[in-house]
């Protein structure tokens, strides 16, 4: 009877079972040295340490830096409290970048979700060559963003761009538009490039979501005489909602960090009209080497992203609760 | 902090004004890169144990330029030429990644342990390194009579707070390209004022000889600051006051100059709207394909314009100093890498010996021939060998005479970001005075 608890424990926990069976002479001595409860923790230590050193430490250090005046040039490193954040609060360039980033995140996420949903609905249907289309659809997403950026740079080129050529010949514009050279069009063009690149990713996520909708429900609806639109609105969409929100959350957080497109296409110009938080913090951190203030910009980014994530999650939880 | 370090490793446009020729040569030479790297290791490590006795050991760090040879080869020659000093070559990224070169140097210099003893630096970093106390003042080693041998513009870029803290090495500057054949039709005289330039450009454009009268670089990037420095200085204006503690960018001279740039797009229409998103290469392409009359750009364009495979205008291109406003003097924005000595170097005499050798007429001569980088000593432009092998470079003496440094301030990195943003806003909106006033306030806050 004394052995019972131990044997249940090892049979319930496959990991400790594997450990104790691997060396039959060891378990007894080992269990005297260390309580069994400690073993999982010890085995997790390498993972925890490596994760903490590459992920947790930089975040904490970034937080710390944002409260200092660290600069590689002046060699200062003193704790300055909230002064970086006060400076941030009254920094027009920061707010300019903040609004651009928010607008970019909102516009690209909404467009990508709507278009991605359309693509997913088409790809969900059975038709000839579906596998090929599904694979081809992923090509833009698989391309490195810098390549996409260069490509859109040429497509929207003010002199030789094919977009200008088509629009000019279709009579929609009466002279070449310099898409990246005008504050009115530069951001829109970057959003178009991002939508082209990332919509397939959304379509893929939503497609997997659509495939979890039970066919029995759809068949039942069809037998009741429901049209395609009704089926979509009352069966597919409600059941897809959690996937949609999670995909949207992923996309929004990813879009918020936009860097490569802006960096390659416009460098933040013209007249700061495409400056985003990532490009701004890169400039502050690595051009002026003001690590303190640059970290404050990054911290502000982090806080904003956190707020976006929390908002999404709260909404998601409410949806799930209502579904129950 | 989430994106710290996620930036692309490629060079930043922010401080990348360095000659594109180097980039091109880097591409061409990249095939030989492995061999060259092996050579570098050979010089740095292989020879040291054998001949280290009694020699002062120092290190030299520089951005990696490529040509017919590398800087490692230069150092090898120096090591073999004498037996007092042994130099270890530290290779930094190529000049196209100048943000990374800058970071690398700052990190090493900030340790204050004397490594590297000698380094090369982009002209815009000199004031920052000097004010941080990392660069050794060189006045006692290079008194005034020795300095006369260099271009005065380069010397002033190497001087901070009245002290010479860098020694001129090689240079580049903005210049005025024109189409000889089209100019023949329109008077044949290279314009010396901006107004004449605009008139000829408009006439050539109207006559259908070219699509664009004048091309320049208006992208919100470092090159915009270069274009602005040139045109403002050519109107006797300046970005910073002589003491570097306040801004003069909202004064009449500077505003007139920026207004002229705005007008080239909107009033005289000699420049396409596109210049607002163009840096060097996009503006070079229409010129070498024969679509433009005039262009402002760096020296790297000339070899491309003379290459029949890449150019429609072979032998039709001339180069001159940029125009100026009436009463002003032509000005060319200075670029290039200059030499410095680490203030914490423990082998000061040896460092100075290397520095002197690197900047000597002989070494500059070799760099001109083998790397295509222009000397900072005017006398070398009269050299017969340079005249035959690099005829274009030999013709640049006049252009380099007007070389003007960008604002000399330890806060340059912040000033340039403000300038890029402010000037871009002025060019886009056309509210030049208003934007320059805002910019001046911002710069005063940075340097004041």
Automatic annotation (TrEMBL), chain B:
InterPro entries: Bact_solute-bd_prot1, SBP, TAT_signal. Gene3D superfamilies: Periplasmic binding protein-like II. Belongs to the bacterial solute-binding protein 1 family. PANTHER family: ABC TRANSPORTER PERIPLASMIC-BINDING PROTEIN YCJN-RELATED, ARABINOSE-BINDING PROTEIN-RELATED. This is Sugar ABC transporter. Keywords: Periplasm, Signal, Transport. Coiled coil: none annotated. The keyword Chaperone does not apply. GO terms for cellular component: periplasmic space. Its main location: periplasm. It is found in: Periplasm.
């Amino acid at each position: 009877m004394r052995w019972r608890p131990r044997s249940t424990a090892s049979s319930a926990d496959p990991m400790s079972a594997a450990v104790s069976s691997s060396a039959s002479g060891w378990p007894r001595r080992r269990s005297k040295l260390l309580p069994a409860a400690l073993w999982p923790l010890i085995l997790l230590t390498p993972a925890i340490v490596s994760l903490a050193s590459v992920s947790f430490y930089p975040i904490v250090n970034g937080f710390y830096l944002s409260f200092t005046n660290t600069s590689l040039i002046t060699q200062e490193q003193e704790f300055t409290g909230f002064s970086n954040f006060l400076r941030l609060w009254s920094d027009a360039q920061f707010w300019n970048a903040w609004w651009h980033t928010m607008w970019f995140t909102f516009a690209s996420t909404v467009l990508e979700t709507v278009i991605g949903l359309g693509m997913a609905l088409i790809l969900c249907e059975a038709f000839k060559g579906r596998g090929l289309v599904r694979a081809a659809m992923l090509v833009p997403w698989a391309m490195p963003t810098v390549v996409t950026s260069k490509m859109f740079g040429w497509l929207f080129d003010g002199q030789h761009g094919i977009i200008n050529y088509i629009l000019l010949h279709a009579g929609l514009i009466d002279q070449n538009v310099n898409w990246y050279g005008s504050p009115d069009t530069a951001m829109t063009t970057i959003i178009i490039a991002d939508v082209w690149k990332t919509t397939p990713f959304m379509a893929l996520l939503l497609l997997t979501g659509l495939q979890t909708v039970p066919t029995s429900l759809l068949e039942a609806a069809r037998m009741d005489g429901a049209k395609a639109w009704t089926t979509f609105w009352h069966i597919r969409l409600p059941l897809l909602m959690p996937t949609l929100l999670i995909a949207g959350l992923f996309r929004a957080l990813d879009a918020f960090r936009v860097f490569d497109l802006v960096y390659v296409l416009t460098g933040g110009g013209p007249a700061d009209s495409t400056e985003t938080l990532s490009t701004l913090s890169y400039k502050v951190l690595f051009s002026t080497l003001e690590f303190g203030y640059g970290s404050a910009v990054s911290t502000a980014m982090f806080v904003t992203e956190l707020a976006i994530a929390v908002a999404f999650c709260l909404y998601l939880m409410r949806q799930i609760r209502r579904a129950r | 902090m989430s994106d710290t370090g996620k930036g692309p490793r490629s060079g930043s446009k922010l401080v990348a004004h360095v000659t594109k020729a180097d980039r091109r040569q880097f591409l061409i030479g990249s095939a030989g890169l492995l061999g060259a790297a092996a050579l570098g290791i050979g010089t740095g490590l292989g020879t040291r144990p054998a001949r280290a006795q009694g020699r002062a050991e120092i290190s030299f760090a520089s951005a990696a330029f490529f040509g017919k040879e590398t800087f490692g080869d230069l150092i090898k020659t120096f090591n073999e030429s004498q037996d007092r000093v042994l130099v270890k070559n530290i290779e930094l990224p190529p000049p196209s990644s100048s943000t990374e070169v800058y970071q690398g140097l700052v990190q090493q210099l900030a340790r204050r342990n004397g490594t590297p003893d000698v380094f090369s630096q982009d002209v815009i970093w000199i004031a920052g390194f000097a004010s941080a106390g990392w660069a050794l003042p060189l006045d006692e080693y290079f008194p005034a009579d020795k300095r006369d041998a260099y271009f005065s513009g380069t010397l002033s870029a190497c001087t901070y707070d009245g002290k010479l803290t860098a020694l001129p090495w090689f240079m580049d500057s903005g210049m005025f390209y024109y189409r000889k054949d089209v100019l023949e039709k329109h008077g044949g005289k290279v314009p010396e004022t901006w107004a004449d330039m605009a008139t000829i450009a408009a006439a050539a454009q109207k006559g259908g000889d070219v699509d664009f009268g004048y091309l320049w670089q208006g992208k919100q990037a470092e090159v915009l600051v270069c274009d602005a420095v040139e045109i403002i200085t050519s109107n006797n204006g300046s970005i910073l006051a002589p003491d570097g503690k306040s801004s003069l960018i909202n004064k009449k001279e500077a505003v007139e100059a920026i207004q002229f740039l705005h007008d080239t797009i909107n009033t005289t229409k000699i420049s396409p709207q596109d210049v607002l998103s163009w840096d060097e290469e996009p503006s070079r392409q229409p010129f070498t394909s024969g679509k433009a009359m005039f262009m402002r750009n760096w020296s790297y364009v000339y070899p491309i314009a003379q290459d029949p495979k890449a150019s429609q205008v072979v032998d039709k291109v001339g180069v001159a100093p940029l125009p100026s406003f009436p009463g002003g003097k032509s000005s060319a924005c200075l670029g290039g890498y200059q030499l410095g000595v680490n203030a914490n170097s423990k082998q000061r005499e040896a460092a100075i010996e290397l520095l002197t050798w690197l900047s000597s007429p002989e070494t500059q001569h070799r760099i001109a021939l083998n790397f295509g980088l222009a000397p900072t000593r005017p006398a070398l432009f009269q050299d017969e060998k340079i005249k035959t092998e690099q005829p274009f470079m030999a013709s640049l003496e006049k252009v380099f005479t007007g070389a003007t440094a960008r604002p000399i301030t330890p806060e340059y990195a912040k000033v340039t970001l403000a300038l890029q943003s402010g000037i871009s806003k002025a060019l886009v909106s056309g509210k030049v005075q208003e934007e320059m006033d805002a910019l001046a306030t911002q710069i005063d806050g940075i340097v004041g």
